Amino acid sequence: MTILRPTRVQIAFAAIVLAAMAFVVEGGARVFFAVKEQLRNKLVSVDPSVLDDYEVSDVAHSWNWRPRAGYSATIDQIIQAKKHSGKVLGEKLLKQRAVELKIEPNAVVMRINDDGFKGPDIDKTHSRVRILTLGDSCTFGTLFDDYSYPRALERELGRLGKSVEVVNAGVEGYGPANVLGRIEEFKALRPEITTIYIGWNALYAEPESYGAEYYLKSVRLFRKAYGKVREKIFGRTEMALEAYSKPKHIQRDAPEVSALDGFTPPFMTDLETIVEEMRVAGSEVVLLTLPGLFVMDEEPSSQALKVGHLPTFTDNPYVLAKISEEYNKRLRRIAKSQDLLLVDLEEWSRESLKPRDEFFFDSVHLYEEGQTRIGQYLAQQLLPLAKTNSKGLAAM
Known about the structure:
The chain is an alpha/beta fold.
């Protein structure tokens, strides 16, 4: 029997066909993402099933969300809501912390004011210097609001003799783009000081924050489609648990870590726009670096590896440490080039949050004790700004 072997011409032709197919698929994927980005604000709506009881879709932008105005709840009500929505990790943590903090089941622990900000009502007279804290869940804080760093900041400045109003504008899941979607609302508050502590969600977003330039759009499209199929088969809760508990591969000198030298997160333009917009509104802008559980110059403890969660695109804690380190470097550069105050929480955490695994309950979120420490430290750093204001408000 004669075996027909492909000729060089046939092999070359097949390679050309495959290359052409790959080119078409990649081109289609690029068009898909370009159109999706352009139409996001018009056609995409947030999935209500992913929102908590204390969140609603933003009327102004259907793709965005915000805290539910006028909401209040006891710790027991919040725990039951977490259970009902299948957020088992959140349910477990709340139960544990309620016991440790000695909070009664019927104690109201979270209030969202009528303007849709977590915390007390906004002072309509604006008689005190107003500090606006922009951010994500790290700013929104744990559901025990008294322990969030915005409330701790307000208390500490009061203790130092500077009566201020702190508006907590943090929202769980937010990235810089979400903040920009509500920037006019934030500017309308006319804060004398605006702090910006944000970035984790955008850094975790796969694969954009890992460096979109390293990924073909077709690969990105396939990964997203694959993830959606798996979510349909196994359910959102199981997928979240799988991501949280996946084994970690610890290698500081891994190629994927060194490849991130000089990495610039793609959302930096959004962040700089937020800075510019708030400064135009007359606010003194303060940048905060991101403290995290994993850092480049420390070996993760067994407890850190147990509780830490990683982005879906890596199983190496040092990848997360590296992208946050590079992001913090860029925050420092922006602060220096634009003459902004920078509160370096990442550097501060090295001495004030030791050992790290006792203060973080996952890779990025602090227990209530850590939140309180941030608020107290931030008060010390903002004290000079709080002494004066440009709007002639009551002296503090």
